[in-house]
Amino acid sequence: MAFNSSSIYNSSKARNFFKRFLRQSRNPSYSPRTAVPSLYPLLDFRPINPRREPICLNIRKISSYCTRVPHNLKNCTSSSSSSKGSVFAKNFSGTATDPLKSGAKMTVAAAPCIKDGSLMANGKVVLTGVPSNVAVYPVSDGLSSSSSPSAAFLGASSSIPSSRHVFGLGVLEESKFVCLFRHKIWWMIPRFGSSGSDIPLETQLLLLEVREKSAVCDDISSGQSANNTFYVLLLPVLEGQFRATLQGTMANELEFCVESGDAHVQTTQVSEAVFINSGDNPFELIKESFEILEKQKRTFAHINHKKKPTHLDWFGWCTWDAFYKDVNPQGIKEGLESFLEGGCPPKFLIIDDGWQDTFNEFQKDGEPFIEGSQFATRLSDIKENSKFKVSESGGSSTNLKELIHHIKENYGLKYVYMWHALAGYWGGVLASSEALKKYNPKLAYPVQSPGKLGNIRDIAMDSLEKYGVGVIDPQKVYDFYNDMHGYLASSGVDGVKVDVQNLLETLGAGYGGRVSITRQYHEALDKSVEKNFVDNNLICCMCHNSDSIFSSKNSATARASEDFMPNEPTFQTLHIASVSFNSLLLGEVVVPDWDMFHSNHDTAEFHGAARALGGCPVYVSDKPGKHDFKILRKLVLPDGSILRARYSGRPTRDCLFIDPVMDGKSLLKIWNLNKLTGVVGVFNCQGSLSRVPKNKTIEVSLGVLQCEIYTVSPIKVFKENVDFAPIGLIKMYNSGGAIEDCTFGDSIRIKARGSGLFGAFSSKKPRCCKVDKKDEDFTYSSENGLLTVNLQSESSFKEIEFVY
């Protein structure tokens, strides 16, 4: 919804539905080797009586194929497999080929070309006003046996050599699309629109829906289908030392940017910067395109050609949210003990940030803390820090090796992973460290891409631009990884989670550019993991740039979205939506990791249900003793294994071009397949904070015994440039009842009662927040303006002050 008016509403209860649709075949000769039960029962939940029926759920075009079945809801019976209920659809006939097997083929489409100044795909106009310096280049003849005639590359030329070019491709109008773009340097999220002006900077996938002029009949059972709809995929890729992205202009022009990240690496022409393909099935189209690019580029491997880590099929625990950097051996033991007592012990453990030996020269005892300086912390040794070298009673001592041996023996762990950053630590490595001098580290100052700076800035990168990064010589980085991984393996460690990966894109100057340094580091990492750990036990994280994606030859799993943030109430729905849409791209290269969540959390059922069908690992970051075993037992079998679906959970076809987070009306459906059955989850991911125009009507649909409470707060202007509206205790039904007074002066002062998470809308981020005249931490979302502060004291009334 547009932020352009005068009131706020806040939903205190997210409506989420987790419904499974399964198909049983009547055919007694049905064989799982030759067919998969159809995941396309044309179930259509439409409210005949809005007071009796649920919110409209149109379960159509769920998968990437269609099987004709009777449109008869009498064939549905219901059962209970979650707290929100579920539906079990049975007695439908028909089978269908698995759409994601390599044998599945799309309808052959016409080759892309430029005709009369228009870019054509499948004989239809995609872009108009194509500049004369843009050309279409065919996929090489050597791949003709496996490539599609509908695929090609787009390139362009300039008379001036440069390390960064922005080329126009043409005008895009009146064509529904979904794109994936990097809103932050580390992560992608989806965006939806219909013209070039809607396409943001740093777009890395663009999928267009192209329809014939004749209307598409919605009643598939009448004999028509969606054959008059096809899809066009544009993927900006790597070409040599250059990396490409897409972006739009206010004039609806679609552009592509190519950059090397090194002023000395220049070009005047690219011919394989943007890949284009088309077809009548979006899922097959994306899969086929990545298979073509895998053979054409030879810089990455498709997920089907990689060895998947075995931890994916076991329940896990990560220490991050449980302890943050205060992780220690005693806390790890206490956490594992509490899982064991509850009858659901994890089988893999990630010891996250906090175990390494680091040093920060910008933080000194007795001096005030400087915000951002924490990211300048650098690695000083490859071994564990003093917390993991503990002297025990009787004069004995323990270390990392003894800890891992103990927890595997006593708590049944199969795998232990350790966290580290791709550059060693957030600030790289300490150049003055005697233990690390042999890797030739040098202090370098990151340079961010202009395209990246056009979206959301990141405090970590802004800080590192100031403090610098200790960069390991790319020629020595394999030795660094091999030494560290060899030590960890000798201590009983089974794998690593490697974080902060996109930092490398800012450090390419002097090393041949961002693509070159990224590729060198990834090749060294893959080689070390293969040597020191079995089963390709590597989790990649903060790696959503095309430099990393198209340099991924071995790594087989990666985090699929920004962190699960337990204290960010409005982030929970965006998290689920982002992961599912990001999996359209990431799922062709890695197994998307949906991140940890908390089993004892307001949104635990929502997150747990999503991970049940995500085809992803399932792991939590609960604090010791803070668990909901009822939810965990819906995800984890008694032996600690999980029921992981076969593919990456992605939006159903009819959800691809709608905004399930902010359009205020659409539900998100995510589909997947098991060996013999299919699974679909339906989620209400609509944001809980929106700015509503004055006198605007909001339509709300509710099912039986479902309710929502909205807090409406008028927006007032503070000092002529800040729009502000208090909301109240956002986890309470009557949120606004906690607000006693709100006054504007030199600052904004609110008198509130109660304790818990207090929320407000603010068009700008405050400089600081005080609660009862004491500085208090707060969170702020620049995307929707939600400002939150945790009121912790037990006093009846509190004074909150926001200073701008």
Automatic annotation (TrEMBL):
GO terms for molecular function: galactinol-sucrose galactosyltransferase activity. Keywords: Carbohydrate metabolism, Glycosyltransferase, Transferase. It is an enzyme of class 2 (transferase). It catalyses: alpha-D-galactosyl-(1->3)-1D-myo-inositol + sucrose = raffinose + myo-inositol. It comes from the Eukaryota. Its EC number is 2.4.1.82. Belongs to the glycosyl hydrolases 36 family. PANTHER family: GALACTINOL--SUCROSE GALACTOSYLTRANSFERASE, PTHR31268. This is galactinol--sucrose galactosyltransferase.
